[in-house]
Recover the amino acids of this structure.
């Protein structure tokens, strides 16, 4: 609950800062040269017990969103959520910059990505990664506004688990691309509800799904990842 | 702009004790992949009123809602307390991954917002928000809502037609049409009789037998189960 409230606090703080002329982050008494580029670091910690994250995609954009609850996943999102391949998602329509981590991020591991843009106006960051020991589970951030973030200021978010709704959560042998199975990744067929929703969690063979290739270590709960966004320039 | 807003707030405070009269635009999204919400109740109320309180026994009105989706006693209770009430904005069930929108005019000392709706298929589970302080500053806010257990009925996970009346064991309906029958019953007693965070549906992988009538790949969830977006005019 704390994690979810923190999101609220961020929203509340953003309002407070805007109305607060003596904030350290908005100190107008020491003007700096106008930067010609804006740099953000995105530190991602994998909080799960046993779900490696596929290479993490971070996209800077000014409008739109990578997914919406209740709407069908784009094929680009499906490709990432079923198989961990973010190459098409990175080409998101309104992207003005993007970056992917070079490798998956193991449970308990942390990685930092750096992204530079030449504009701050309406700037949003989105992030997505697959929990690879699932059928089509992913986590991330959708269009977080960073346009008012001052240099050295940070935003911390805890991410939720989503289900692309494009592949049934069968947990069966051959359907999960991660190391728990080594099965199939992206498949263009859609045999599930075909809308994005929050993920109900994996069941596993230890919790009543006889056919599952997953075990208790692969279970997860919200939040999935800790993400710290810092504007460094 | 900032100064005048502040001044206005002070003047209002001096003029009367009630800062809270507000026009709210509300959007409630069912974030789950497999749960329906029964008719939703939204109230703005004073600090003494509650639709439910965690770690307290459910009122009979709450129990009636949580076990069968019937809002009538909760509405009567809210009306008697002078709360501002929006009942059934979705005009029936709110399906998985769908949203409903409504407006609420809060008056006088009704500075707090609460929400309740039963989760189907569960025995006595509900999505809830207890006494969220309505901000006095105009803007858009979001809150994530968790699933609670009223603590009034054992979670036997058996779908039994006509079991929505308080005290009648069973889940009254599985609107998704994807539950089974013939289960032997999961749990016949409930040790925590206070309102608490729902432990979740368990389900099983045999819809024709097993202990539960629910499916363990369809009817589970992870919190949060709903997102409420509030625009204060």
């Amino acid at each position: 609950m704390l994690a979810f409230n923190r999101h609220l606090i961020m929203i509340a703080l953003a309002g407070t800062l805007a109305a607060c002329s003596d904030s350290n982050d908005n100190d107008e008494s020491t003007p700096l040269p106008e930067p010609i580029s804006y740099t953000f670091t995105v530190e991602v910690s994998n909080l799960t017990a046993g779900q490696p994250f596929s290479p993490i995609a971070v996209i800077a954009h000014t409008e739109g969103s990578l997914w919406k609850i209740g709407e069908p996943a784009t094929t680009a999102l499906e490709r990432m959520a079923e198989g961990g391949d973010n190459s098409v998602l990175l080409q998101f329509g309104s992207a003005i910059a993007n970056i992917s981590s070079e490798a998956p991020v193991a449970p308990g591991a942390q990685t930092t990505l750096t992204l530079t843009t030449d504009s701050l106006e309406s700037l949003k960051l989105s992030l997505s990664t697959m929990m690879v020991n699932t059928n089509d589970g992913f986590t991330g951030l959708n269009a977080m506004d960073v346009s008012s973030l001052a240099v050295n200021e940070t935003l911390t978010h805890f991410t939720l688990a989503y289900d692309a709704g494009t592949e049934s959560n069968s947990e069966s042998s051959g359907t999960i691309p991660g190391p728990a199975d080594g099965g199939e990744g992206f498949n263009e067929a859609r045999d599930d509800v075909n809308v994005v929703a929050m993920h109900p969690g994996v069941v596993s063979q230890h919790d009543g799904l006889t056919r599952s290739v997953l075990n208790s270590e692969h279970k997860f709960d919200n939040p999935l990842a800790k993400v710290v966004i810092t504007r460094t320039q | 702009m900032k100064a005048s807003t502040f001044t206005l707030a002070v003047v209002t405070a001096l003029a009367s004790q009630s800062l809270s009269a507000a026009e709210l635009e509300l959007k409630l999204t069912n974030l789950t992949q497999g749960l329906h919400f029964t008719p939703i109740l939204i109230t703005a109320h004073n600090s003494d009123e509650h639709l439910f309180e965690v770690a307290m026994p459910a009122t009979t009105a709450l129990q009636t809602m949580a076990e069968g989706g019937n809002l009538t006693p909760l509405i009567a209770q809210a009306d008697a307390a002078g709360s501002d009430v929006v009942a059934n904005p979705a005009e029936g069930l709110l399906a998985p991954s769908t949203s409903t929108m409504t407006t609420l005019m809060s008056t006088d000392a009704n500075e707090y917002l609460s929400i309740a709706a039963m989760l189907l298929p569960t025995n006595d589970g509900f999505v809830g928000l207890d006494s969220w302080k309505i901000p006095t500053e105009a803007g858009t806010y979001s809150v994530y809502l968790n699933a609670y257990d009223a603590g009034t009925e054992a979670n036997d996970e058996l779908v039994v037609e006509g079991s929505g009346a308080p005290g009648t064991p069973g889940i009254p309906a599985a609107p998704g049409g994807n539950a089974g029958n013939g289960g032997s019953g999961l749990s016949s007693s409930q040790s925590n009789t206070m309102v608490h965070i729902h432990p979740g549906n368990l389900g099983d992988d045999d819809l024709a037998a097993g202990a539960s009538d629910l499916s363990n790949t369809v009817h589970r969830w992870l919190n949060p189960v709903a997102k409420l977006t509030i625009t204060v005019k």
Notes: The longest strand of chain B covers residues 139-149.
